[in-house]
Amino acid sequence: FPVTIDAYDGTNSNFIRIGRSASTGRLRVFTGGVEQADVLPVNAAGWVGAVKLAASYKANDFAASASGGTVGTDTSGTVPASTQLRLGTSGAGDTINGHIRSIRFFPTRLSNAQLQALTA
Protein backbone atom coordinates (compact mmCIF):
# COMPACT_ATOMS: atom_id res chain seq x y z
CA PHE A 1 0.00 0.00 0.00
CA PRO A 2 2.17 2.89 -1.21
CA VAL A 3 1.19 5.54 1.27
CA THR A 4 0.94 9.26 0.82
CA ILE A 5 -0.12 10.15 4.37
CA ASP A 6 0.04 7.88 7.41
CA ALA A 7 -1.26 9.22 10.75
CA TYR A 8 -0.40 6.75 13.50
CA ASP A 9 0.62 6.24 17.11
CA GLY A 10 4.14 4.93 16.48
CA THR A 11 2.94 1.34 15.96
CA ASN A 12 1.57 -0.51 12.97
CA SER A 13 -1.60 -1.40 14.90
CA ASN A 14 -3.29 2.01 14.96
CA PHE A 15 -3.26 4.16 11.84
CA ILE A 16 -5.16 6.15 9.24
CA ARG A 17 -3.62 5.75 5.77
CA ILE A 18 -4.49 7.76 2.71
CA GLY A 19 -2.82 7.00 -0.57
CA ARG A 20 -2.61 4.84 -3.60
CA SER A 21 -2.80 1.06 -3.73
CA ALA A 22 -1.66 -0.30 -7.10
CA SER A 23 -3.68 1.98 -9.42
CA THR A 24 -6.46 2.77 -6.96
CA GLY A 25 -6.82 5.48 -4.28
CA ARG A 26 -7.58 4.25 -0.82
CA LEU A 27 -8.34 5.20 2.79
CA ARG A 28 -7.56 2.48 5.35
CA VAL A 29 -8.11 2.70 9.10
CA PHE A 30 -6.89 0.21 11.73
CA THR A 31 -7.49 0.28 15.49
CA GLY A 32 -5.79 -2.31 17.70
CA GLY A 33 -4.59 -4.17 14.60
CA VAL A 34 -8.18 -4.63 13.36
CA GLU A 35 -9.32 -3.04 10.12
CA GLN A 36 -12.03 -0.47 10.78
CA ALA A 37 -12.47 0.97 7.28
CA ASP A 38 -11.23 0.33 3.76
CA VAL A 39 -12.62 2.95 1.40
CA LEU A 40 -11.93 3.01 -2.33
CA PRO A 41 -12.99 6.17 -4.17
CA VAL A 42 -15.25 5.19 -7.04
CA ASN A 43 -13.28 6.59 -10.00
CA ALA A 44 -9.75 6.24 -8.66
CA ALA A 45 -8.77 3.22 -10.78
CA GLY A 46 -6.24 3.57 -13.55
CA TRP A 47 -4.52 6.74 -12.36
CA VAL A 48 -1.89 8.22 -14.60
CA GLY A 49 -0.16 11.49 -13.76
CA ALA A 50 -1.24 13.89 -11.03
CA VAL A 51 -4.27 12.91 -8.98
CA LYS A 52 -6.15 14.67 -6.22
CA LEU A 53 -7.29 12.47 -3.33
CA ALA A 54 -9.29 13.59 -0.29
CA ALA A 55 -10.45 11.59 2.70
CA SER A 56 -12.49 12.43 5.75
CA TYR A 57 -13.31 10.46 8.84
CA LYS A 58 -14.95 10.30 12.23
CA ALA A 59 -16.30 7.31 14.17
CA ASN A 60 -18.66 5.27 11.99
CA ASP A 61 -18.29 7.74 9.08
CA PHE A 62 -15.40 7.33 6.62
CA ALA A 63 -15.23 8.73 3.08
CA ALA A 64 -12.79 9.29 0.22
CA SER A 65 -12.95 10.91 -3.21
CA ALA A 66 -10.52 11.08 -6.12
CA SER A 67 -10.49 13.45 -9.06
CA GLY A 68 -13.92 14.87 -8.21
CA GLY A 69 -15.57 11.49 -8.55
CA THR A 70 -18.26 9.74 -6.55
CA VAL A 71 -17.33 9.40 -2.90
CA GLY A 72 -16.64 5.92 -1.52
CA THR A 73 -17.86 5.41 2.05
CA ASP A 74 -17.75 3.07 5.04
CA THR A 75 -20.23 3.61 7.87
CA SER A 76 -18.81 1.43 10.61
CA GLY A 77 -15.58 1.66 12.58
CA THR A 78 -13.59 3.40 15.28
CA VAL A 79 -10.87 6.00 14.81
CA PRO A 80 -7.47 5.30 16.38
CA ALA A 81 -5.48 7.84 18.35
CA SER A 82 -2.71 9.34 16.22
CA THR A 83 0.35 11.16 17.52
CA GLN A 84 2.68 11.06 14.51
CA LEU A 85 2.51 11.72 10.79
CA ARG A 86 4.50 10.00 8.05
CA LEU A 87 4.61 11.31 4.50
CA GLY A 88 5.42 9.11 1.53
CA THR A 89 5.99 5.88 3.48
CA SER A 90 4.24 3.35 5.70
CA GLY A 91 5.39 1.33 8.70
CA ALA A 92 5.71 -1.69 6.41
CA GLY A 93 8.41 0.10 4.42
CA ASP A 94 6.22 0.86 1.38
CA THR A 95 7.13 4.12 -0.30
CA ILE A 96 5.62 6.24 -3.04
CA ASN A 97 7.40 6.72 -6.33
CA GLY A 98 6.37 10.26 -7.07
CA HIS A 99 5.74 13.63 -5.53
CA ILE A 100 3.32 15.11 -3.04
CA ARG A 101 2.32 18.49 -4.39
CA SER A 102 0.32 19.67 -1.38
CA ILE A 103 -1.44 18.52 1.77
CA ARG A 104 -4.37 20.24 3.44
CA PHE A 105 -5.69 19.39 6.90
CA PHE A 106 -9.14 20.26 8.23
CA PRO A 107 -9.81 19.52 11.92
CA THR A 108 -13.38 18.40 11.21
CA ARG A 109 -15.17 15.74 9.13
CA LEU A 110 -15.76 17.34 5.73
CA SER A 111 -18.97 16.56 3.86
CA ASN A 112 -18.92 14.23 0.87
CA ALA A 113 -19.69 17.21 -1.39
CA GLN A 114 -16.70 19.06 0.03
CA LEU A 115 -14.45 16.04 -0.67
CA GLN A 116 -15.61 15.97 -4.28
CA ALA A 117 -15.05 19.72 -4.68
CA LEU A 118 -11.54 19.53 -3.21
CA THR A 119 -10.52 16.85 -5.70
CA ALA A 120 -12.21 18.27 -8.81
Question: How confident is the prediction overall: mean pLDDT?
Answer: 85
Strand composition percent: 35-45%
* Low-pLDDT ranges: none
What is the chain-wise order of helices and strands?
EEEEEEEEH
Determine the structural class based on helices, strands and strand pairing: mainly beta
Enumerate the strands of the largest sheet in spatial order, edge to edge or round the barrel: 4-3-2-1-8
Number of strands: 8
- The helix tally amounts to 1
Helical fraction: under 10%
**Largest sheet descriptor:** 5 strands, antiparallel
Query: What overall form do the CA principal axes indicate?
Result: globular
Q: Radius of gyration over alpha carbons?
A: 13 Å
Distance between the termini: 24 Å
Protein traits:
single chain, 120 residues, mainly beta, 5-stranded antiparallel sheet, 1 helix, 7% helix
Give structural notes:
It is a single chain. With 120 residues, this protein is mostly beta strands. The chain contains one helix and eight strands; from the N terminus they run E-E-E-E-E-E-E-E-H. The chain has a five-stranded antiparallel sheet, with no helix packed on it. Strands 5-6-7 form a three-stranded antiparallel sheet. Strand 1 and strand 2 form a beta hairpin. The protein is globular and about 35 Å long. The mean pLDDT is 85.
